[in-house]
Amino acid sequence: MTKPVVLIAEELSPATIEALGPDFEVRTCDGANRDELLPALVDVDAVLIRSATKMDAEAIGAGRRLKVIARAGVGLDNVDVQAATQAGVMVVNAPTSNITSAAELAIALLLATARNIAPANQALKGGAWKRSKYSGVELLDKTVGVVGLGRIGALVAERLKGFGMKVIAYDPYASPAKAGLVGAQLVGLDELLAQSDFITVHLPKTPETIGLIGEDALSKVKPSVRIINAARGGIVDEAALARAVAEGRVAGAGIDVFATEPTTESPLFEHESVVVTPHLGASTEEAQEKAGISVAKSVRLALSGELVPDAVNVSSGYIAEEVRPGIPLVEKLGRVFTAVAGATPAQLDVEVRGEITEHDVSVWKLVALKGLFTDVVEDPVTYVNAPVLAEQRDCQVRLLTDAAAGDFRNVTTLRGTLSDGTIVSVSGTLTGPKMVEKLVGINGYDLEVPLSDHMLVFEYSDRPGIIGAVGRILGDSDINIGGMQVSRQADQAIGVLNVDSAVSSQLAGEIAAAVDAKSFTVINLQD
């Protein structure tokens, strides 16, 4: 059996390869070289990148088999997430891998600017002992303004509190309680700009944050302020900052990230009081190892068809261990629904009943959609593009839960309304210590039939000889029946058969005609 192919497009830690394990064919290329990258993507299942490889729409389109883009780091500026989602490609990153490293670099830059470490180092190595020129300032009792109190900003605030600093923070999405946990006081942005002796930026790069610390903001700061940006280039306007430093309106800065990278020229480089580093926030052995291991595990999960906690374009959230066994069942129910209905619904209700509702089962909406479209569209259906397919087909989905399940501990029903108003429903459950997947209802008929790769479902007017006729035709075609059940309502009945091999449409038509079936469905759950 051919192994899935994983392309490593940038240098990653050896631990990444070890975490992938022996189940993959691993290839390498220089992802920064487009002429090398695009052909390398043609037949790979996953690509692992850092910041130099641009996975834009062109690159994603080149990866005809691509299922996963894994960014060994936090930012996704170099990945077109929308194009990936449209193509059904999962995008994963390592959101917590470098938070300690990034926080420590921000503090290092802050200390370096406070004590003029970089120019003093350069002068001494050049033979000049300039003790008086490079005197600095203490952190004790100074005010630091943390712009963005996410995971990295919170770590910075917590650590700077230990220096005896007063910590204030601006973050419209943070609560006072969260700020209090790290010893910070929430204030407005203008107040932070006016009060801070040091300002350190820890925001994501969005249309709203680009240029946030620009000419206007810099007109409101103390002339003694020192500004740190180890978050994303462009949040601090580099030209405006350089002018403020040159004019004595800002005392210094520590900059690790730039609007355009790589960059070797900037007006900031002209000033001794500005410390610059080439985007080193995640450049520690520990962060690279954590990031590589994290995305390698995500790739393994994704290529085995599992939901991935760190997928940025899959709305799955936390999945309890008790909920996971039901995922394959619900996906199969989606496929059974489409087969029975012969169409996709305009409205789909995922009804979950029983003890399982003590947990968050919202992921089953996503899983049901994946099953619903698997046998409907030509392109592969994934957890990524299933919601897109539903939106394109005006299919609305909602989750309904009830702690009471009736005859079973847990039952999941997919109930859909077709465009002509017809209502179709299929129900399933897991039974016994082996968690056997069973179909327990179709359109109001009660059943208890194990799900199998090949099944037949037919509704007919109840009368003697029907099952015998079906068995005879299948036997003549050398197709064995593995199990069967009949459920009746008044003078109508439904038969469900588990068969050992696929039934052709021609044979299905022959059986349907022989029993004068009201409806006849062939279900194929074989991958």
UniProtKB/TrEMBL annotation:
| One GO MF term | phosphoglycerate dehydrogenase activity
The pathway to which it is assigned is: Amino-acid biosynthesis; L-serine biosynthesis; L-serine from 3-phospho-D-glycerate: step 1/3
InterPro entries, sorted: ACT-like_dom_sf, ACT_dom, ASB_dom_sf, D-isomer_2_OHA_DH_cat_dom, D-isomer_DH_CS, D-isomer_DH_CS1, D-isomer_DH_NAD-bd, NAD(P)-bd_dom_sf
Q: Which residues form the ACT domain?
A: 455-527
Keywords from UniProt, A to Z, are: Amino-acid biosynthesis, NAD, Oxidoreductase, Serine biosynthesis
Q: What reaction(s) does this enzyme catalyze? A: (2R)-3-phosphoglycerate + NAD(+) = 3-phosphooxypyruvate + NADH + H(+); (R)-2-hydroxyglutarate + NAD(+) = 2-oxoglutarate + NADH + H(+)
User: Which EC number applies?
Assistant: 1.1.1.95
Keyword check for Cytoplasm, yes or no: no
Protein name, UniProt field: D-3-phosphoglycerate dehydrogenase
Species of the source:
Intrasporangium calvum
Q: Which gene encodes it?
A: serA
